[in-house]
């Protein structure tokens, strides 16, 4: 099956969004832990920053990533006419 240019454009936008969000996920998950000793010098409400990110901050960012992806993909689906509709 040959995909139309419109389908390919939709897929490219989907992959771009996914790549950006995966990069954010990678930074929050691995880079923050890698630099934990340096980040512990920053204190937020009495807790070192690396501890805060491990305990709360990363979880909040994960939820925001999921929310943003769902919202943006819904917009793209509507824009390209591939939304899940009620039949």
Automatic annotation (TrEMBL):
Domain of life: Bacteria
Transmembrane segments: 20-37, 49-70
InterPro entries assigned: Na_symporter_ssu (IPR019886)
Keyword Transmembrane helix: yes
Keyword Zinc found: no
Listed Pfam families: DUF4212
Domain spans labelled Sodium symporter small subunit: 7-83
Keyword field: Membrane, Transmembrane, Transmembrane helix
Record NCBIfam families: Na_symport_sm
Name of the protein in its database record: Membrane protein
Organism expressing this protein natively: Thiobacillus denitrificans
């Amino acid at each position: 099956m040959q995909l139309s240019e419109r389908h390919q454009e939709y897929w490219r936008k989907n992959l771009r969004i996914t790549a950006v969000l995966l990069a954010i996920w990678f930074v929050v998950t691995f880079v923050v832990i890698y630099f934990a000793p340096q980040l512990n010098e920053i204190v937020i409400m009495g807790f070192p920053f690396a501890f805060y990110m491990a305990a709360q901050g990363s979880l909040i960012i994960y939820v925001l990533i999921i929310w943003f992806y769902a919202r943006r993909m819904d917009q793209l689906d509507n824009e390209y006419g591939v939304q899940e509709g009620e039949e």
